Structure formats: structure tokens, C-alpha cells
Amino acid sequence: MRPGGRRPAAAGEAGPRDTAAPGPHSAAGKPGKDPLEPIEAAVTVVCTLGVLALTLWAVLAVFVDGVGFYLPDRVCVADPSTSGGGTATEGMFGAGPGVDVEARPTFCFDGSTGQRALFIATTQLVLLWHVGALVMAWLLIRRARKHGPFTRRTVRGLTLMGRYLAGGAVVLHLVEGLAHGVLISHATDYWGYARLLDATQVRWWPIFIGLGLLTFARLIQLATDMREDLEGVV
Amino acid sequence: MAADDAEPHGIEVHLDRLLAERRMTLTELADQVGVTNVNLSVLKNGRARAIRFSTLTRLCEVLECQPGDLLSHRPK
After folding, report:
1. Which domains, and CATH codes, for chain B?
2. Count of A-B CB contacts under 8 Å
3. Rounded to whole angstroms, how far apart are CA atoms B17 and B23?
4. Chain B residues touching residue A12 (CB < 8 angstroms)
5. DSSP-assigned beta bridge partners for residue B72
6. In this structure, is residue A63 part of a structural domain?
7. pLDDT tens track for A41-69
8. Which of A67, A192, A215, A224 is the Cys-Cys partner for A184 at CB 3.0 to 4.6 Å?
9. Residue-number span of the structural domain to which A194 is assigned
10. Chain A residues within an 8 Å CB radius of B54
11. Low-confidence ranges of chain A (pLDDT < 70)
């Protein structure tokens, strides 16, 4: 191309700073390569189903007896980090000759109001953490759709979500381990906090996905810097 | 990105003065150089981060000047 032989200005042409927002034709000019898919479709479907289920539950809670939010009468806590067995267990489960049964206990008892509240809070915390991750993903995708994927907003959102997933999984493990430990210690004589030290009970996938998002955020930061440099070139 | 976030530099662009001396508008210059009005405005207002040699060549050809007439360095 000869020097300065670029296309002349067209009326109403987008300025150099209007190129961040993604479009279906923005990825290397190839149609159908939307950079925000397929995660946008997946998150939208899950969020829509979640809102529908929540609406249905709320409607049923008003009109149908027995549907709603209640404290359970009994507290049932499983201890996945402990197992045991014996002749009685093998007989109970109909084990054949030469077959050992290792059962993992679930302790059910009539808890006090505080114990029942602790049990429910722990269960709901896990649910809230999942819902929170979904909402964050939805907001992140929405902002990326509006302002463009290669922006500082996206970098901040990815960093926040990475910390939420990785840090949240660790915090959740500690909270669950402690809460279940308190409840199990009430039900048995043995030390009920083994779950805290059990590596198989740690949610490793969110931790690794969170760390991956933190790395991805740094990559997007580099891409954002490059985009801004390119847009500043005349 | 806002211009305020860009790395600070001490390069001044004298496109305003050169245009005034040649009684030329930004649109006319943009047409002759072959860049958009928006990009030339970015350069004129000191918001550009870099300038291509090809753009500089065309600017110098059209304005009949040297790069030093267009750009200068002001020490901080």
C-alpha cells in the first residue's frame, strides 16, 4: 500500500475509540465468531430457568400448603470423612461372603433452634454462593457485550469473579467444615472436624477455575493495552 | 480509554498552526492525506499515542513541511 493510501473518511464513520464493543463480525472479520458465545447462551439459559423456578416456588408457597421456607425439625449431617463397618453393617446391607462394607455415617437428631439454623445457614450459603457466581457471570457477560470484551471493566469483572470462585471455595470449605464439626460433635463422641482436613472434600474445580480466570484477566489486560495502543495510532 | 489514562509524553503537535498558515481546514487535509477526520482530530488535539510513518509522510507532502515543523518536544 502506498504511504497514506488508506481509505478516506466517510460521513458518520465510527471513531477510533468505538471499536471495543463486540459484534458477530468482530472476530477477525469472520461471521458467526461471536467472542462472547457460547458462554452467554449457557448463562442466559441457566439464569432464565433459575428465575422461572424461583417464581414458581414463590407462587406455590403462597397458594399451596407445605411449600415454602421452614426450619426442619431434624438436623441431618453427613460425615464424608469418616467411615466404618463391621458384621452388623455387612448384614444390614446384605453383603455376600468376603465382601466388606464401609459405611459413611449421617447423624440425624432433634436439634435446638440454633443448631437447626446453623444447619440451614450452611446449606443456604452453598446455594447462595452458586447463585452469586451465576449472577456475576451474567453481569460480566452483559457488560462485556455493552462495552466490549477488551476493556478494563472486563478485566475488573474477571478478576473479581476469579477471586470470588477461588476464595469463596476455600472459605466455604472452612465454614462448612466448622459448622458440620459443631453439629457432629453434638451428635457423637469422636472428633467431628475431620472434614476440614479432608482434601477430597475441598471444591477444587472452582479454585482452579478461579485461578484460571485471574490468569485470563491478565491476558485480557494485555489485549486491552494493545487495543488502546492501536486505537491511539493515527 | 480516556486520554487521561494514556502514558504522559512531551510531544506537541502543531497541526493547528500549519493549517492556519496554509488556510486549510481539517476536513480538506483529511481528504488529501487519506485519513479520517476523527483520527486527524485525535492527532491535532494531542490525544494520539503514535503516528504512522506513512501518515507523517502524507502530512508532510500535503502541508509541504518537515516532520520537525509538525512535531516538537517540550521538556518537562
Report:
1. 10-73 (1.10.260.40)
2. 73
3. 10
4. none
5. B12
6. no
7. 999 999 999 999 989 988 888 888 777 77
8. A192
9. 71-98+110-231
10. 1, 3-6
11. 1-32
